[in-house]
Predict the structure.
Amino acid sequence: MTAPDASGGGRSDPDRPDASPIGGHHPPSIVDEFVEARGATRVDASLPGDAEFALCLTHDVDRPYKGLPSLYYALRERPIYHTRTALSSANPYWQFEAIADLEADLGVRSAFYFLDEQHLLLDRPLSDWTSPTHWIEHLGRYDVESPDIARAVRELDDGGWEIGLHGSYHSPEDEARLREEKDRLESVLGDRIVGGRQHHLRLSFPETWRHHRSIGLRYDASLGSGETIGFDYGYRPLRPFDDEFVAFSLTIMEQALPDPGQRYDAARDACDEILREAARNDAVATALWHPRYFDEREFPGYRRLYRWLVERALELGAWVGSPRELYRWFESGADLDRSDESRRRRSRQSISGGDRSR
């Protein structure tokens, strides 16, 4: 299913870069050819609790601080609002607590993929300094080892949410870089990371998956599109090497939907069509909502739509949770991991740290 045309498409997100040479949209024909030529297989295990279908919830943590990127956004749209948010100590993009509260209320958990982007001036070659795309990409960089981010990572993990790797912009073809990012995030987490997704869906096919498998990841969720929604890559996750490594495909990214702030019914209906198709085909669907889209002032309607999506999936008999939980079910063929389930039941404290004045 393709997203509506420009007259009815999703909100223009000024944080989106220009099209990537190895990401943004992966032609389904590439997957078909790979499956046919390489002997890749699909996950055909039953779903937890004999569910009608599965919905995996994910959040790519691109920009937890708005800060200086506000000045860039001000050049694109709403200059007064974005300039004011650049100068304010409030941080509309720190949405960890809002998301956790919403999901806990619905009895589900999701995955948060944290980004360890390189520093443009300290880590990247001089040739990158002349590219506006690279300046935009690195302007909102954050440090996964900073106190506020590290605290958010640990508190989410304590509450049963999955912490995963959001491979950086330049990492798809760089195994050493991916390993370094994974090691740093695991040192913050104090535990192993099971999987993740590449930033901007930048996937060098299938080399990035080989790198993921080599550094110890068990799954990847980068295969997909930020422009269309649907099951273009199949109804079940792929085993690209016919072993334990799994590739979850992305079914719905929020920015590919009609803007729910302007056309809520159209966005809801598009999601409902996807969920009904999933139920008819015993499918595994994956949804991506970037945390900043939970800020109702900047992205009205998206938080409401996300809640509806989860509630509707549950109403249709879906299993809803993180890719890590589902992966463990597929590999064990038994009960979901007890540590995930026990942490779902724990009381959760506020996930602090969003105030830039701290």
